[in-house]
Amino acid sequence: MLCATSRLLAAREASALPAHPRGRAPAPRSRRRELHFPGHPELPPGDFLVGRFTKPSVPTGRRVILRKGRMPPAAGGGLAGSELRPRRGRCGSQAARAAGRDVATEAATARSPKRPALPSSRRFEAAGRWALLALVTLTSFASRFHRLDQPPHICWDETHFGKMGSYYINRTFFFDVHPPLGKMLIGLAGYLSGYDGTFLFQKPGDNYEHHSYMGMRGFCAFLGSMLIPLAYLTVLELSRSLSAALLTAALLTFDTGCLTLSQYILLDPILMFFIMAAMLSMVKYNSCANRPFSAPWWFWLSLTGVNLAGALGVKFVGLFIILQVGWNTLSDLWHLFGDLSLSMVTLGKHLTARILCLIVLPLALYIATYAVHFMVLNKSGPGDGFFSSAFQARLSGNNLHNASIPEHLAYGSVITVKNLRMAIGYLHSHRHFYPEGVGARQQQVTTYLHKDYNNLWIIKKHNSNSDPLDPSLPVEFVRHGDIIRLEHKETSRNLHSHYHEAPLTRKHYQVTGYGINGSGDSNDFWRIEVINRKFGNRIKVLRSRIRLIHLITGCVLGSSGKVLPKWGWEQMEVTCTPYLKETLSSIWNVEDHINPKLPNISLEVLQPSFPEIMLESHMVMIRGNNGLKPKDNEFTSKPWHWPINFQGLRFSGANDTDFRVYLLGNPVVWWLNLLSIALYVLSASVFAVAVQRGAHLPVEVEGLSQVLLRGGGQLLFGWMMHYFPFFLMGRVLYFHHYFPAMLFSSMLTGLLWDTLLRLCAWSLASYPLARCVHVLGILSLLLGTAYR
User: Fold this and answer.
1) What domains, with CATH codes, occur in the chain?
2) How far apart (Å, rounded) are the C-alpha atoms in residues 326 and 312?
3) Are 719 and 677 a contacting pair, CB within 8 Å?
4) Nearest 5°: CA angle at 103, between 97 and 109?
5) CA atoms within a 13 Å half-sphere pointing along the CA-CB vector of 9
6) Strands 509-514 and 556-563: what pairing?
7) DSSP per residue over 609-666, as a string?
8) Number of other residues whose CB lies within 10 A of the CB of residue 293
9) How does DSSP classify residue 66?
10) Which of 270, 378, 604, 771 has the most crowded Cβ, counting Cβ within 10 A?
């Protein structure tokens, strides 16, 4: 019967071949392709034949080579798609490649062995898939938008990101440790929904009153709702299993942590949206590998680049998904490089396409985000002091914007001195003394990031108490190498140092304010030096980089960057370091300069270019991120706490309000995810060893193992990339940092349990209720995740 079938097919193929236009056969060439024949009359239900057609040099017929296999069980959806197509080159989807060469769809076994599927049944199946996706999306949106207006007061970090949205509406410059895209989108959502940017966002618990806040919360809830259909589609593409995708959607829908994090004005739902969109786009363009340079291939590749720019533009954590996509791209290019059928020109096209879409396009969009950021925020605000004097000169309302100040420093001038190390600030003092046991009990000297009258100092000669601003006296300029005194304008105490140890930094000397009405001692004397200048040169405002050397001890004035305790108002420590090496922390410049006896010059020539602004802003953000420390009574956590759902985060309720919000994951979901990661490592290791050792696996097991290894491997790698780097970070960490990794662990859980249940159903195929194992297992997991 098999031979008869072969001859019949060969005859049909030969009769269907058109005659050659010139009456002769084409040049000899051979190609092979496979066709699956489910439901052969001589085979039991579930078996299939794989036919390999070899086209001979003379088109008089085709030979058919048939071999026998068995279809996977048809429980809960197909493994490799619902249609059977000739296989040419690489498969049309990742799941099809993962299923191996001999695995067809489970849906084929459900059809009659003698009757092919009707087009209407395929349309019905496609309609069912769309209906299920719509149901998942509707459930997601319903859960995220339920009681979105509650509580009607500020919750947790809404006080930061809501305020920053207001800054964009008011065009007021500010500083934040994260890139600007997420905050810009929040501000845009508020503006479009009628919010006028007048609410102060002072502290958690403050009522919104009549201010419109629902637009900003609604925007974050919308992106948070999109996480579930994105995860659903990603798992569906990796496994081609509706049950695996549905289980993943249920895990995320019923997780209280994801729900809570999506309902407030935060960056996290925006970040996770771009991460999941990038992951789905990457999986989709992988599935188009058999159609390179086609319209869908270009679309998904370009969309991957757009989402990568979005993820990095919200938080630097977006770098993790960039690394994952980069690894996938390198692996893809490596396999293409090993394909000897591809010419070097084709390989060059593949490489160029990926460079353009995954490097150039994201970089251009990321830079464009900053261009818009700097264009919108053109007014002076609370973030000025974090940046250099030249940067501040471009902000309208800043005292350096379109300003005219004396060019050269002279005695009697009132000045501010700014440290050149990013995010250190201005030399500052105030009327508070160091506490007992902390060096000498003298006036504190610190650095302060914001503009303040306590930043003003008067520069005087070390050996004269006469008033340099006396009109009868000539102007005398300060020069490189001069010995000077700096008198604090508000308290009339001199900048002073001695051999007492600094408050926080060992082996450094304490810096204080000392004296009465400008009179002190020789420990008030400092030698001013200009970097890379000769003795006697004048000192230019803003441009000259200076150091202050203590005359008695020989130490250099600088800032350690360490934050003082509450007695120091959490400002930064100033020390006198005996190490004379030139570092940015010991180099200063004169910013403000007031001297009525000197002519002024315009500062427009000092405004930096756009690349200089970009570089400086990133240096300030990186330093600000590394300097984040926990506040008193603040609930922080460690990375090992996160997967076990050890400790949550209080969003609201600290002020005895009626509505309390606490961020904590669903224990069933989180512990199931943790168990699934361990179980996946074990099962994947077993399959990987079996494959590597060349073990002969049944085609069903081989196909499911490839889905587990390839699809699950990508998800495990995503979880690792978004979790383990936090163990290396020195900054303060919170529970919400784990949620991008939690998305990947939930997708891995859905794919793993669906695959394991299919393997169980296959192993019990001889029992009557074998097909119920998969269905009952999935239903049990769905009901378990819904339990609170």
Assistant:
1) 132-372+664-786 (no CATH), 404-602 (2.80.10.50)
2) 14
3) yes
4) 135
5) 20
6) unpaired
7) PHHHHHHHHHHHHHHHHHT--PPTT-----GGGTTTT---EEEE-TT--S--EEE---
8) 12
9) E
10) 270
Using the CB atoms, write b or e for 700-731: b if 16+ within 10 Å.
bbbbbbbbbbbbbbbbbbbbebbbeebeeeee
Q: What is the average per-residue pLDDT within 594-616? A: 84
Q: In the block, which residue shows the tokens 């207001």?
A: 166
CA distances from 228 to 675, 704, 743 (A): 21, 24, 9
Q: Is 728 left (phi over 0), alpha (psi -120 to 50) or beta?
A: alpha
pLDDT band at 201 (very low <50, low <70, confident <90, very high): very high
Q: Which amino acid is present at 548?
A: L
- Write down how long the chain is: 788
Burial class (CB in 10 A: 0-12, 13-18, 19+), 452: middle
User: What is the tens place of the pLDDT at every residue in 363-409?
Assistant: 999 999 999 999 999 999 988 878 887 888 889 988 888 878 888 89
Residue 406 to residue 388: CA distance in whole angstroms = 18
Name the token pair of 763: 């192993």
Q: Give the CA count within 13 Å in the CB-facing half-sphere of 322.
A: 21
Tokens representing 231? Answer: 């995860």
Give the CA count within 13 Å in the CB-facing half-sphere of 756: 17
Average pLDDT for residues 527-545, to the nearest whole number? 82
d(CA 481, CA 569): 34
The pLDDT tens digits for 422-457 are 778 899 999 999 999 898 999 999 999 888 899 999
CA-to-CA separations, 595 to 261, 320, 393, 454, in angstroms, rounded: 54, 52, 19, 18
- Scanning 114-157, the segments in alpha helix (DSSP H) are 119-145
Give the model confidence (pLDDT) of 224-267 as tens digits: 999 999 999 999 999 999 999 999 999 999 999 999 999 999 99
* Reduced DSSP (H G I as helix, E B as strand, rest coil) percent helix, strand, coil of the chain, to 5: 45, 15, 40
Amino acid at 629: K
